[in-house]
Amino acid sequence: MVLSWTIRNVELMHPWMLLLLLLLPLFWVLFQRQRRQRYTPLQLSSLAELQAVNTWRSRLRPWLPLLRVLAYCLIVIALARPRIPLQEEEIKAEGIDIMMVMDLSSSMLAQDFQPDRLEVSKRVAAEFIDKRPYDRIGLVVFAGEAFTQCPLTTDHRVLQDFLSQLSCGVLEDGTAIGMGLGTALNRIKDSEATSKVVILLTDGVNNAGYLKPITAAEIAREFSVRVYTIGVGSTGDALTPVSRRSDGRYTFGLARVEIDETLLENIAQMTGGRYFRATSAEGLKSIYEEIDTLEKTEIEVTVVRRYSEVFYAWLGAALVLLFLEVLLRFSIFRSIP
After folding, report:
1. Domain span at 33
2. How many domains does the chain have?
3. Is the separation of the CB atoms in 57 and 332 below 8 Å?
4. pTM
5. Residue range 44-64: average pLDDT?
6. Which residues, other chains included, contact 287 with Cβ-Cβ below 8 Å and sequence gap of 6+?
7. Do residue 86 and residue 138 come from a single domain?
8. Are 154 and 263 members of one domain?
């Protein structure tokens, strides 16, 4: 066990070395004894002739040993090994692996959420990621087809960049829920994490892809992957893209919000997850907060500290004082035996 002592952000790794300072009185006694043995007293009938000898050199020379005393103190402090801690945390945790599956079909541009469903979903998902600093999180997107936007990673800054760049129209339009779930399962099924979770967000009805959503749910159950499903969209009619112009822009019109809630409930029930319906931005945020609460696990955190060693400066200063003391003793304050 290493005993340390911290003074104003400077930590002494071996503070017990400071006990060497208690030897200073002993050294002073030995110095005085040696000095008396070296300089024998002279008996003079008068000191009048020595008045002119009282110069600044003669007045300062008795203080010369102080340089050696200060050097000794600095060496003792250097032996105590002062250092400045630069704290870092290295996380080694068996946490949760989470794949986020997000719908990029054109209906995600519906304006029943402000500014639209996609932008709100991206913002709330980003806030959820910020709350899970120790988990590996990945991102899968789907429309009429699906692909992995970002594999499982702890580099959430990269994940956030991918998330912010999501937009509708980059994939063939449609809603392939089974394909989106299947792609996420392919990324997470072999994970060794204590808990494997998929958060699937969609606003429509499965109408594309060759993998049925129920089949994907059965695969998730086989690999112990829990799926939380979220249906996004208000009730009734919403201003939704109904066609696309030749220049790529969408034409909006009122359309009924259709979400296959039965399918999403079945997927969640089969895998031990839950189904949520978000009819507003606030509702979607509360759903992610609830999922964040449900998916908690104990993690093992190992704290690793790095230090900036500063004892070199103290040792260097001591050597400078010793050199200065020797230089002055044999030059300016030189004595004749």
Report:
1. 1-37+63-91+301-337
2. 2
3. yes
4. 0.64
5. 59
6. 230, 276, 278
7. no
8. yes
